[in-house]
TrEMBL record:
Protein name: Peptidase M16C associated
Coiled-coil boundaries: none
Domain Peptidase M16C associated per the UniProt entry, residue ranges: 452-699
Organism this protein belongs to: Urinicoccus massiliensis
GO biological process, alphabetically ordered: protein processing
SMART domains given in the database record: M16C_associated (SM01264)
Pfam family, any one: Peptidase_M16_C
């Protein structure tokens, strides 16, 4: 299926079963730009362009350039074309990402006109950015000086504040320390995202030089995926972009550190407010290079076998000896195949014990071998996850996979095609030679052993050092230099505050409302009922996979029981049953499925909510039939006698939650604010929010005195968790597989006892709350239930949320304030919540939320501008979804009695949005903000400085 494209030289082409695509590899004849094409039937077309961008220090230049390229260009003259497209496009993905040695710009869309628009904006951005003419872009996105309250000199900037947030997380700091220890001051020892201590060392000139040296076609990797006509886009890329350059040798060399000749032992500190957090220990090594496709897969398989699974051999070895509270593994995205195995929450000064436990475990595995069934089960789970191929965004995942080898001079086909490497690994397992790979690649590798010690003074020391640094700079400023800083800061603020001109706005490519398809995607459903149980079958193409959900009503449990129910997913399938050990159970599960997930959840609409306890599993084809007896064993015969195992699993859950706080702070804050005024949201907090965390933490802090009563309560709740009243079975996959499965499903659903409904009345606590932890940024949310203000949900509220998130809140909290992100979400249930992400400001952000009504009162948009905002909201009604997700969406609709026609009406309401309807929400937003329902999550110092704002302050 080779095709000739003008000005491109064909290199190689072949069909790829693993991507279901014909893959063609070309080079642009004049510049050497490399081009990879994947032709298939997917309507979600993908374009991406990437560049090799290895760092030479910790200043974060690659990251800052990534942000800045999307802030205006030769053809597109607004301050932020990226945000204009987020606001007004039908994109299904629109972003950019900086890795340790590359920067990529992927987009995707199901609309051809939209796709071409997005491609051109991104191409113009990367090759002809406005940042050469406008230094303020560097100052906004990277860093700049300003005087806080016209007094104290500070650093500010989006990337600077983002990386302050990243390095507030001890896990991130430990990862940086380990990478620096393993690679020293070479490419992979540097922080490509930028270390906050080093970002202010980056000059505007060095920033521009980096772009000149790296953002050139000769250093580019271009990618097209889907069913689009690639001739048109390739001609366009050549004519308007590549042909304007000549081939060039560029300084983009990756500098590798020498291999370790012997084990390296290091000890460093990390900041915390509690010495009981203990030490981190990291066991780091390199397994070869990414250009070896088998080793790429082998590394991920070893990670699953040894650490990621609850039965991982290294995880068990460390937990059995009470060495630590949690163990996790990180894998590099780089040429060296680095592995970082980290134990968290351990006693200090035990590096040698840590090393010995791991080495002894590995030696034992090499001598005795893995349990063959468990090894095959893990391999089966691993293969299923690979074959699912990245879900909604598989076209983008394929690009990243190709770059795993392509970026380093090897064929992109190695990174795309995994079946041969999987077959090779399976053969190695079946031949009993797998342990030799463990010995060669892991046991015998030279290691870095790093201890990161808890230091309660380090955060204050860093803050004092920064304050001294800035004070010294401020004291040494001349009058002219102070005036220049004030002038530049004011000029930046003026630049950010000045609306784009009509001429600039006109440069952004646009869709029209005529480009919007009417209605929403129909999800086919075949519904049957037998003995009170409902069966929903969704005949979707799943590439041979079968997805099964059992959903049980949980309204028969009181609040204390729901708190216990929330912990069951951490245990079911992971502790023994009366019939088999947890290891044998795990093996049986993964031999036949991708796993069994237990999920207590709350479905909510304006008029109804439903508490459900769901069980999800996915299998290759008919293997789903074999999972039902295993599931039944878990549902009826789980034993709660393994006290230490239960404690360890709950401790892993607690530390995992805590590790995610600074990644998910905006979700935590906005969900918490919902719980102030919504009963379903309050129950949701108990099942998975901060109430859940505090319940779990309190239990573990008092384990010895409470464990007996807790285990009794847990078993009691387990025995009634699977309510036989209103069972729903949902299946997505092939109809023949489903029909053959129905008799067994019917038999199973008849075995559950029914329980009466319990009327829950959780106590709501309207308040202004703050939750502090060692961090240098905040996550801030205000909200309310619009139903309480007699404001029924309308589809035009999705347009309102798009307008505020991508316009007003973005401009004031991110662009001006330096936060990494901000927005508002308005659910169809009526719950409204604002949020900010990695925010360096508090009172200013709250004031911005409170002024949303005033902003709407002053709103003046043309009909065309309103149309663009409407178009940008359309994905809220018909987002890109996998077949599994389509089944889950329709399950939710069934539970809440939602008709597709109702959702189509909401979409029509959105399409009919006018300036008047947007302005009509002024009073509603003001009323909602005036309720003063506030949750702030993050920086202990900033919360303490503003404690008078809050009714309650909690320490996490």
């Amino acid at each position: 299926m080779k095709k000739d494209y003008k000005n491109y030289t064909f290199i190689e082409g072949k069909y790829s079963e693993d991507t279901n695509s014909y893959v063609s590899y070309y080079k642009h004849t004049a510049t050497g730009a490399q081009v990879l094409l994947l032709d298939n039937d997917d309507e979600n077309n993908v374009f991406a362009i990437g560049f090799k961008t290895p760092p030479k220090d910790d200043a974060g230049v690659a990251h800052i350039v990534e942000h800045s390229t999307l802030s205006g260009s030769r053809k597109y003259h607004t301050k932020e074309p990226f945000m204009d497209l987020i606001q007004s496009s039908l994109q299904t993905f629109l972003n950019a990402m900086t890795f340790s040695d590359k920067t990529i710009y992927p987009i995707s869309s199901r609309n051809q006109k939209d796709f071409m628009n997005l491609c051109d904006v991104y191409l113009d951005a990367v090759f002809f950015p406005k940042m050469y003419e406008e230094k303020k872009i560097f100052q906004q996105e990277g860093w700049h000086y300003e005087f806080k309250d016209n007094k104290d000199l500070i650093y500010n900037g989006v990337v600077y504040n983002e990386m302050k947030g990243v390095y507030s997380d001890p896990d991130a700091l430990v990862a940086f320390q380990a990478s620096r220890g393993l690679h020293g001051e070479t490419t992979y020892g540097f922080e490509s995202g930028g270390h906050p201590k080093k970002i202010p060392s980056l000059s505007y000139e060095d920033f521009l030089n980096f772009h000149r040296d790296h953002y050139h076609p000769s250093n580019s990797y271009i990618y097209l995926y889907g069913n689009l006509d690639k001739t048109e886009i390739l001609d366009h890329i050549d004519r308007d972009y590549l042909s304007q350059f000549s081939k060039k040798d560029l300084p983009n060399e990756i500098v590798l550190s020498p291999d370790l000749e012997e084990n390296l032992w290091l000890c460093q500190d990390y900041p915390t407010d509690d010495l009981d957090d203990g030490s981190y220990y990291t066991y780091a090594f390199t397994m070869g290079q990414a250009t070896n496709g088998r080793d790429l897969l082998l590394r991920a398989l070893f990670a699953d076998l040894l650490v990621n699974s609850n039965e991982g051999d290294l995880k068990e070895a460390l937990l059995d000896q009470n060495f630590c509270k949690d163990i996790y593994v990180d894998l590099s995205t780089s040429l060296p195949l680095d592995v970082y195995i980290t134990a968290k929450g351990a006693k200090p000064d035990r590096s040698k014990d840590f090393y010995k436990i791991i080495q002894d475990c590995l030696k034992d595995l090499v001598i005795k071998g893995f349990d063959k069934k468990r090894l095959l089960a893990t391999f089966n789970k691993f293969e299923i996850s690979i074959r699912e191929g990245g879900g909604n965004h598989k076209g983008i995942i394929y690009y990243i996979n190709a770059l795993n080898t392509w970026l380093y001079g090897a064929s992109p086909f190695i990174g795309l095609n995994f079946s041969d490497a999987l077959a090779d690994l399976r053969k190695t397992i079946e031949n009993g030679e797998f342990e030799k790979l463990l010995e060669e690649k892991v046991l015998n590798a030279k290691k870095l052993i790093l201890e990161s010690k808890a230091n309660t003074d380090l955060l204050k020391e860093d803050q004092l050092a920064l304050a001294r640094e800035l004070k010294e700079k401020q004291d040494n400023l001349t009058t002219d230099e102070k005036a220049r800083i004030l002038q530049e800061a004011q000029a930046l603020l003026d630049y950010q505050s000045t609306p784009d001109s009509l001429q600039a706005k006109a440069s952004i490519p646009k869709l029209t409302l005529d480009d919007i398809k009417p209605g929403i995607r129909h999800i086919p459903r075949k519904l049957t009922e037998e003995d009170g149980a409902h069966y929903l079958f969704h005949p979707e193409f799943t590439n041979g996979l079968s997805y099964l959900t059992l959903s049980f009503e949980a309204h028969h449990l009181d609040l204390d029981e729901l708190a216990c129910l929330a912990l069951l997913p951490n245990l079911l399938g992971k502790i023994s049953t009366q019939n088999q050990s947890y290891k044998d159970l795990s093996t049986a599960i993964y031999l036949n499925s991708s796993g069994i997930l237990f999920d207590p959840t709350v479905y909510q609409s304006k008029d109804k909510y439903s508490i459900r306890f769901n069980i999800h599993t996915g299998s290759l084809g008919r293997q789903v039939e074999k999972i039902l007896p295993i599931m039944e064993d878990i549902l009826f015969h789980t034993s709660f006698k393994e006290e230490k195992r239960i404690y360890d699993l709950l401790m892993l859950e607690k530390t995992s939650n805590e590790a995610g706080f600074l990644q998910n702070g905006h979700i935590i804050a906005s969900s918490r604010v919902d719980s102030h005024y919504s009963k379903p949201a309050k129950i949701r907090e108990l099942l998975g929010g901060l109430d859940y965390h505090f319940y779990l933490k309190d239990l573990l802090d008092h384990w010895e005195e409470r464990k007996d009563a807790f285990l009794q309560s847990l078993e009691k709740v387990y025995k009634k968790a699977f309510n036989g009243r209103d069972v729903i079975v949902e299946f997505t996959g092939e109809e023949k597989v489903y029909q053959d499965l129905v008799p067994a499903l019917t038999t199973l659903t008849k075995k559950f006892q029914s329980y009466p409904y319990v009327d829950l009345n959780p106590v709501l606590s309207p308040a202004k709350e703050a939750f502090s932890l060692p961090a240098s940024v905040l996550y801030i949310s205000k909200g309310y239930d619009l139903n309480k203000l007699d404001a029924p949900y309308s589809g035009s509220m999705a347009v309102l949320a798009n307008l505020l998130s991508t316009g007003y809140l973005h401009e004031n909290i991110r662009a001006k304030g330096g936060a990494y992100g901000a927005g508002i979400r308005i659910k169809s249930s009526g719950l409204l919540a604002t949020y900010s992400y990695r925010d360096p400001q508090l009172q200013e952000t709250i004031a911005c939320y409170d002024a949303m009504g005033t902003y709407l009162d002053q709103l003046d948009l043309t009909p065309d501008e309103i149309s663009q905002i409407i178009i940008g909201s359309m994905n809220a009604f018909d987002p890109l979804r996998t077949p599994y997700e389509l089944g889950q969406v329709d399950l939710a609709r069934f539970i809440l009695d939602q008709a597709e026609e109702d959702l189509s009406i909401q979409k029509q309401e959105a399409l009919a949005t006018s300036l008047q309807s947007l302005k009509s929400y002024k009073s509603l937003l003001s009323q909602a903000m005036n309720q003063d329902q506030l949750v702030v999550f993050g920086s202990q110092d900033m919360i303490e400085e503003n404690k008078d704002l809050f009714d309650q302050v909690y320490s996490i």
